[in-house]
Each structure stands twice: as structure tokens, then as C-alpha cells.
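Sample entry (260 residues):
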Amino acid sequence: MVNLKWDHTVHYVNSLESAIKKFRENGLIAFQGGSHKQWGTYNALSYFDLCYIEFLGVENRELAENVVEPNEVVRDSVKLLPGQEVLSRVALRTDDIEEVASHLTKLNLDVSPIMDGKRLDAQGNLIEWRMMTIAGDYQGLPYPFVIQWNETDEVRRERLIDSGIIKEHHTGEVTIKSAVFQVSNPSAVAIHWHRLFGFEMFEQNVSSDSDKWMLVVGNQTFIFIKGDENRMQQLVFNTAAPDLKGKLITIGEGEYLFEG
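Predicted structure, serialized as C-alpha cells:
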């Protein structure tokens, strides 16, 4: 199985402008991304090195509702919005999407064909990638999707820094530490994702009334805690910024927690 990295996190929102404004009020850089003309969605972005947040909205509902490709990210957008502005799927980055597709297909997952994605950024530059989604869920929790960019991490990071897309936030250095998923059976979900994606797994702080399992994704973690939502509940960040440390920012039903 090839190495997978945490690329980005999707947060469905009705207003990109409101999400951008909320981040900017807290010293975080967020900006308009662009439109997915073939899918009817559009986004705003906030980068923390190569791991970023994608605020995703529906720009053309008729197009999004009738998209031909089996793109579960787009399908979720019309299913959830406008009623549920929630943190949703994580994207896992690979440099060999065909190998990942083959591996997951052998595990009997309903994997989409590999799709070509593209959008124009705010400056009119064409951004391209390849992606695939996994239909269905495991015990109610949607699967991640998989993305491959047309550059290596090193080349892409350099380009994004040179273009000013990756830069230090106004409040200072901030990094994404973990994603917290509230699920009905944390151990079962952690074991399942470990089997699918190869992430190291361990149990943490278990007591008679808690059940917390973690997967190691590079220097970050996916945390599974017991609850009824069966979705991502929170992103947790590391920061030394006094104005952010200890703060909880909410956008819709998504939570952003900043720790020291």
C-alpha cells in the first residue's frame, strides 16, 4: 500500500464569504478559491502548510444535483446544504492513485473511476488534479476520498509559497494537529480505517466511560470518540498565538479548537 497523507478537509458552508470573514476576524488567512464548473460547486481555502481546509458551497444547484460523475463530495454538498453546514470528508493525498484504487477495490469497496478535476483560481490560473471517491460509509461515517496532484509535494509547496497562497497567518504560526470524529463504535471504525489505509493505530485514555482511538497520519492524527453524530466534529490546531490559544471557533456545526 502506498503512503497516504492528509491533504485537506471539506467543510460544507452556505456562504463562503461568511467563513472567510470568521477566519479573518481571528487572524487566519482564508480566501476565495474558485469554481468547479463541471460540478456546480465552488470553494474558499485556508492553508496550513500543504494540509488545508476547503470551505465548499453549491454555486449551481441544478448542475450539482445532476452531475454525471460518481463524485460523492459533490453529492454530499446537495444532500447536506443548506441544512447542515458540517465538517465532512478528509482527502488523502497519494502519488499513485491507481495503486490506491486497486488496493481498495480488492477490499470490496465501491470505488469510483479516477476523475479529472479542475478549476480556475481567483487569478484565472488552471488548477488540475485527479481524484476518486468511495461510495457508502462504515457504520454511518463517510469514507475519505483520494487525490493526486500533478506535482510532487516539494514542487507544489514551493509554488504555493512563491504565489503567496501558503504563508504565515496574521496571528502567527498555526498547524493542524488532528481531526476528531464522533462515531458510535470508535474501535471498530479505527480498525477498519487502519485496514483500508495502513495508518498506525492505538488506543488512548480509555476508562470505563470513554472510548478513544487514534490513527497516526504522518505527524497528525485522526481521533475517534464515542457519539451519535457519525461525522467529523472538530479540527484541532497547535498554536503559540496568545489571541488564539484556547479558543473554539464554530462555523455552522463545525468546530475549530486551538491548543498550545
